[in-house]
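Researcher: Structure for this, please.
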Amino acid sequence: MAGASPQHVLIVTNVAAELRNQLKKRPCTVYSTDLRVKISPTGLYTYPDVVVVCGKPQFNDEHEDTLLNPILIVEVLSESTADYDRGSKFAHYRMLESFQEYLLIAQDQYHAEQVVRQPDNRWLLSETNRWEDRITLTSINCVLPLVEIYEKVDIPDKHPVL
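Model: Predicted structure, token format:
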């Protein structure tokens, strides 16, 4: 999303850096912001905030600017995109065979929503808004502490409102 807020950009940077540190000795790659993802079954193209691929990345063509096989997608929510990110966009993402986990992060309060594909192909939602919590990303075997996600992010109201 062009013209993102400083909070948005900092959260994306924090998440990408933390995941990169945890994955650097494993066969997974972290991409942020400008790598496009194509949902082949529906034809939608999106630009997620952070994407993780494990194994060999599959691209749409020789330009290697459109990824086809993300395992984890992270979106930082804004007022204008939150409903779309939770609804229609997530419905498209679920059509990707490789896609296993979705993390939605608020930029104006300490709040994260995690949705994980279950073995029976249902999706399990969990949420947290406690500063001391840690999010276990099962698809890539990583842990994201909220304190790391929100490091140096100015949250106006330190008490989460749901």
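Researcher: Any notable elements?
Model: The chain has a mean pLDDT of 93. Residues 6-149 form a domain with the tt1808, chain A fold (CATH 3.90.1570.10).
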